[in-house]
Amino acid sequence: MVGIRFHGRGGQGAVVASKILANAYFKQGFYVQAFPSFGMERKGAAVSAFVRLDNIPIVERGEIKHPSSIIVLDTSLLNKVDVAQGANTGALILLNCRGHDSPIGIESSFRVAGVDAVKIALEHGLGTKMAPIINTVILGAYARLSGDLSLSNLLDAIEKGTPANPQKNMAAAEAAYQAVFAISGGIDAA
């Protein structure tokens, strides 16, 4: 079973991203679950969302304690939340960040990659400078790194799962697929 954990803030679309990702994997024939975890339910508060996938029906319930992939929509959370908590050795950690030299403070036992999802979102007209819409963007980068998700299935899930501007969201995800970069741990990225 594969576990994916999202970390973001309320309003960034982590929950929608988890549903889109689960639908993309479902299109590939996996059994899937997608579910959120909220603390204080307000915009800007830390939220987590989860995706489970397997080749057999999933009976396990509850939060994913030992994820194989972690997607961080807001790196300011790195100062407040241990995003790598419980992660398997060699887990993929994908960050929305500006550069290769991000001061992330994540142990080297993980494969860490980044994508400037904010820049890509703004270039594609997704949201505003104060509130860019990055959830589908970062999914494009994840598809590049995951090794088990086809970009075409992700784009189809984005087209059907975004509440507005599906074509812009799909184009931004494709751009992120090309723009992901390695930070540490032997990531095969641009």
Question: What is this structure's SSE topology?
Answer:
Layout (H helix, E strand, L loop, with lengths): L1 E8 L4 H14 L3 E8 L7 E9 L14 E4 L19 E5 L14 E5 L1 H7 L11 H12 L4 H11 L4 H14 L1 E4 L6
Parallel strand pairs: 1-4, 4-5, 5-6
Antiparallel strand pairs: 1-3, 2-3, 6-7
How would you describe this structure in keywords?
seven-stranded mixed sheet, about 190 residues, alpha/beta, globular, 7 strands, Pyruvate-ferredoxin Oxidoreductase, domain 3
Describe the fold and architecture.
This protein is of the alpha/beta class and 190 residues long. The chain is built from five helices and seven strands; from the N terminus they run βαβββββααααβ. It has one domain (2-184): Pyruvate-ferredoxin Oxidoreductase, domain 3. The chain starts with a strand and ends in a 6-residue tail after the last strand. The protein has helices spanning 14-27, 117-123, 135-146, 151-161, 166-179; strands at residues 2-9, 31-38, 46-54, 69-72, 92-96, 111-115, 181-184.
The CATH topology, please? Pyruvate-ferredoxin Oxidoreductase, domain 3
Percent of residues in helical segments?
Answer: 25-40%
The helix/strand order is: EHEEEEEHHHHE
Low-confidence stretches: none
Overall shape: globular
Radius of gyration, whole Å: 15 Å
Side by side, the strands of the main sheet go: 2-3-1-4-5-6-7
CATH class type:
Alpha Beta
- Portion in strands: 15-25%
- If you average the pLDDT, what whole number results? 90
